[in-house]
Amino acid sequence: MIKYKCNKKKKGEIKMRSDKRIEPFLKELGEIWKAEFPDWRFGQLMYNFIAETGDPFFLEEDKFLETFKAWVAEIKNPE
What is the structure's pLDDT at 1? Predict the structure, then answer.
């Protein structure tokens, strides 16, 4: 059995994140992917990102994009 944490408002009621966050997140991720790494497969993009920045499991979408953009900037403009 898989156990997971959830946010509960009150007993028996689960507080869910809005599904409206998904489309803007995917759109922005896709735009960055297309502009910066169009020759990389999605798995390749995520593997390279995760290998260098760590497990994104607990990141909310806004923090994921913030971390992703910083990683892209570092890859494209290394010091």
Answer: 53
